[in-house]
Amino acid sequence: MLLRTSRKTVLVAATGAVAALLTATTLPAAAASTNGDGRFTTIDVPGATATYPTVANDRGVVVGYYIDSSDNTHGFSDIDGLFNTINDPAGSEGTSVSGINDAGVVTGYYTDSNGNTNGFIDRSGVFTTIDDPAGIEGTFPTAINNAGVIVGVEFDASGKPHGFIYRSGTFTQFDAPSGVKGTQLGFISDLGVLTGTYTEANDDVVSFVYQDGRFTTVNDPDAAPYSTYIGAINDLGVIDGTYADASGASHGFVDTDGVFTTLDDPAGVDGTMVESINNVGAIIGSYIDSDGNIHGFEFIPEA
Q1: Do 90 and 129 contact (CB within 8 A), yes or no?
Q2: Could you tell me which residues are beta bridge partners of residue 242?
Q3: Could you report the per-residue pLDDT of 140-174, keeping only the tens digit for each?
Q4: What is the rounded (10 degree) CA torsion for 155, 215, 300, 2?
Q5: Vertex 3: Cα angle to 48 and 222 (nearest 5)
Q6: Domain assignments of the chain as residue spans, ordered by start
Q7: Which tens digits make up the pLDDT trace of 161-209?
Q8: What are the pLDDT digits (tens) for 104-135?
Q9: Helices in the chain by DSSP H: which ranges?
Q10: Is residue 143 a contact partner of residue 107, using CB atoms and an 8 Å limit?
């Protein structure tokens, strides 16, 4: 998952007492459509003005965040159409959920009453704050794998982003050698493969996969230069993400062994953004409809 400043680093007021951190709502019949070799299903949190799912674990649990009618940001989980709101009790100014593993451990970040952004781990409703000591300007976890390893982005005192790996209570900074102006980690697979972006000295943003000490850049051939953004990689090595074309329109993509396929939700007249892919091939993202409203989706490929 790519940390996008416009969507994910600006959190607004969230409400809710500790006793009401998990409130369930049953999903109305979801809109669905077929497209090529699979099926899109729309994900809308009831009452939300915008829904941003971020990932589905291999058990099919979807998590993400949504904006309510008061412009507050909340995390959510979606289990077979049953929605639960997830608010870190310290996140008085907003909670976003970015990852979940197959054990149901959730990670994300919240903004407190002082405007500070902190990471968290949620184990069955028990929240633990995790803050990278180097993240003076904020800690943003973006993914968690089945080994419990978390990756994300921290911003230092100058506002420069650095990737981090959080393992067994210890933060390790991760910077791409060419990332003169910053590195962001967006995903870690169960095999420990990393994806992210780095920004070069000339402000070009480069997407990469990091495995066995080697950086491999990823560029969709239909993308404008430096406009490919990886969402995730699964254990089969299938990559997905988002690219902007020459006109600036956003499209999803799937990269299978270097063969790129565009993936656009049919309802996404004004753009499709792909966030993640799990080990059973389910793809999670969001789209913008003709009225400018943002909806989530899940794409299930044909067997």
Answers
A1: yes
A2: 229, 252
A3: 999 999 999 999 999 999 999 999 999 999 999 99
A4: 20
A5: 100
A6: 5-301
A7: 999 999 999 999 999 999 999 999 999 999 999 999 999 999 999 999 9
A8: 999 999 999 999 999 999 999 999 999 999 99
A9: 5-8
A10: yes
Task: Name 74's Cβ contacts closer than 8 Å, sequence gap at least 6.
Answer: 14, 16, 65, 66, 68, 85, 86, 87, 94, 95
Rounded Cα gap, residues 41 and 19, in angstroms = 31
- The token pair that represents 154 in the structure block: 């921290």
Mean pLDDT, the chain, rounded, equals 90
The structure tokens listed for 72 are 């507050």
For residue 27, what is the DSSP state?
Answer: P
- Second CATH level (architecture) for the domain 5-301: 6 Propeller (2.120)
Q: Is the pLDDT confidence value at 26 over 90? A: no
Beta bridge partners of 22: none
Closest CA to 241 of 222, 215, 263: 263
User: What is the C-alpha separation between 141 and 230, in angstroms, rounded?
Assistant: 16
- Per the CB < 8 A criterion, the answer to whether 105 and 148 are in contact is yes
Average pLDDT over residues 42-68: 98
Mean pLDDT of 250-257: 97
Rounded CA separation 71/14 (Å): 8
What is the phi/psi pair of residue 8, to 5°? Answer: -125, -10
